[in-house]
Amino acid sequence: MPASLPQLVADTDKLLDHKNIGDFPGALNGLQLANSGQVTKIAAAVDANLPTVRAAVATGADLLVVHHGIAWSPLLPLTGRRYALLKLCLDNNLAIYSSHLPLDLHAKLGNNALLAKALGFTASEPFFFEKGQHIGRRATASVNRDELRRRLNKALGADVHLIAGGSSVCQNIGIVTGGAGNELARAAADGVDTFITGEGAHWTFSLAHELGVNVFYGGHYLTETFGVKALAARLAKKYRLPWQFIDAPSGL
Fold first, then answer.
1. pLDDT one-digit tens code per residue, 231-247
2. Is 248 exposed, middle or buried (0-12, 13-18, 19+ CB in 10 A)?
3. Regarding beta strands 133-144 and 125-130, do their DSSP bridges make them parallel or antiparallel, or are they unpaired?
4. Nearest-angstrom CA–CA distance, 137 and 131
5. Domain that holds residue 11
6. What is the predicted pLDDT for the residue at 26?
7. In sequence order, what are the beta bridge partners of 143?
8. CATH number of the domain that 160 lies in?
9. What is the DSSP letter of 17?
10. Cα dist. 109→67, 94, 115, 173, 228 in Å?
11. 42-47/63-68 β-pairing
């Protein structure tokens, strides 16, 4: 039986507390593109772009749940590939729902909490203040750096990049999925000796050694697959709908 899109959106906005969580101006958390008003199948992806929209349409989905939506830039002319993306959605009754920082920081469905759990850290706490709230997670442990790398490789399904700037034993581990590498100094000032994130600039290699901090870069994309999968699975269970993850890795 189809689900009501307005009801699903209202429930999800409340679940993720969109109205009370700060974010970057272009995030526009919530429903970004409507459909006819009903949902029969959910697709989930990290990004809303032409490849994922095409794949979602091919699966027969009429709702695409994403972490990075379609509206990050200021409003641009709806021409070229931007027009093609929107026309593809409209022609195929595909709604798009996006959640950025709210889906990073959620205690149960969030990228950071789920990555921490996948690494074996079941007692992590909020970490890394951004846009009015803590968006990451911090874990206290005593784990060999090589063992942590092995766990991270397994959790992400790929070899991560390590900057071995600190001790071989990791004890205060901070996690901020996505592109937080350039905030390494801020993470170190918060007391972590190991920082796990998605990506960062070239100069963070030197900075990591200067600060005495280990840095793991797992990829912006790979570190942010957890939240959309968890959210889509929860919605599918609640509304008794099928769902499918659209894997479209950026390699970054």
1. 999 999 999 999 999 99
2. middle
3. antiparallel
4. 15
5. 3-101+225-245
6. 85
7. 170
8. 3.40.1390.30
9. T
10. 12, 23, 10, 20, 8
11. parallel
